[in-house]
Amino acid sequence: MRHTQRGIGMLSLFVLIAVVSLLGTVTIRLAPVYLDYWGLTRVIEGVVKEHNGTDASPVQVRSTLSRHFVTNRVEAVSIRDLKISVVDDNVVIDASYEKRVPLIFNVDAVVKFEDARYVIERK
Length: 123
Known about the structure:
The protein is an alpha+beta fold.
């Protein structure tokens, strides 16, 4: 009577464990970066709603953002790193940035957030 293998072999099990461990490590290391980004965008969107339709200056917007950054503990980007300017009589907030995260040994992940650009329409 001939027996066939049932289940997973030892080598296949080690490969599966390695792949799951690698994916778990990447997820654990990158999750805080994305959570920080979502917090940053939530704060900026709140400030945009607060100042939309008003005659806010870039200095006022920066001051409001600074207060909200402290209140919401935004640490992903500094208030000095934001580019706040006036374009076509609107205040534009450019919060694009990139973050480098160490993954394993000497391997890093670089995450770019380039779509963080908001416009406050003034009167």
